[in-house]
Amino acid sequence: MDKRIDWRALCSRAVQRLALELASVACACSGEGHARPVTAMGLRFPSPVGIAAGFDRYGRLARRVAALGFGFNEIGSLTANEVAQLGVMHNGSARLGISLTLDARQASAESRAMLRAAWPYADYLMLNLIGPTSAPLLSQSTRLRHLLAALCEEQRQLNQDGRRRVPLLAKLRCMPERTPFSIAGLLVELGFDGLLAAHDPGPPATAERYRAWQDAQRQAQACQQIEDLRRFCGPDMALLSVGGVQTADHLRARMSAGAELVQVHTAFMHQSPWLARRLLR
């Protein structure tokens, strides 16, 4: 049994916990954040900058992040058992997204039940297709199509019966020269409301990878993928971008490329809780 310690991952988790603590204190001490409202998927967001899933996984900050200038906060990714423990999170004006862990070991009915349980708490729902438990689905095209179609049908029924509309999106890995056009096409066909392009390989969020995103060529690659996805998906699907956004110039470039909303994660860990205000200036 390999008992080697991944010190980089441990350090990343420690930095994230500290950043979460500081953000919680800052939310309590701050007034209304800098507002730059945008509308996407029929929802009004106080600003186009949001917090990516994985930072505030269980919703400790939830909607309160509006005080820091964030327009939305995506909690999760959550399993079915974690969704069952959710409570109402009213405080604050930021939109709340819930990222759902799709597990290839689960039956379609179980995934539908998880979406149904999360729907009352969310302003939008995100299906996480980049996690390790969902990886087998990406190589099973027929099964993936049936699952996504079933979840779309569940969302439509809930929206109709609940008399409010909760958009449904999916998170896809978008690495250099590997834009996921095939799955993006499936999302368009099924009528998904949006697509989140994740331009980073995922945790741990190390300092080395944070510095790597300061390379102009890497930023340009992410923008090019957003441009390509915008042309491919058309104007009706919302595009979100996450990965490497650290400065106001980065934010402007992603939005100019076609992203309506942009998420941050590692930059929130390495900069101050007032990151969104600086990006929006």
From TrEMBL:
Pfam families: DHO_dh (PF01180). Gene3D superfamilies: Aldolase class I. Its cofactor is FMN. It comes from the Bacteria. GO terms for molecular function: oxidoreductase activity; transaminase activity. Keywords: Aminotransferase, Flavoprotein, FMN, Oxidoreductase, Pyrimidine biosynthesis, Transferase. GO terms for biological process: pyrimidine nucleotide biosynthetic process. Transmembrane segments: none annotated. Pathway: Pyrimidine metabolism; UMP biosynthesis via de novo pathway. Residues 221-279 form the Dihydroorotate dehydrogenase catalytic domain. InterPro entries: Aldolase_TIM, DHO_dehydrogenase, Dihydroorotate_DH_1_2, Dihydroorotate_DH_cat. Catalyzes the conversion of dihydroorotate to orotate with quinone as electron acceptor. This is Phosphoserine aminotransferase. It comes from Stutzerimonas stutzeri. The lineage of its organism: Bacteria, Pseudomonadati, Pseudomonadota, Gammaproteobacteria, Pseudomonadales.
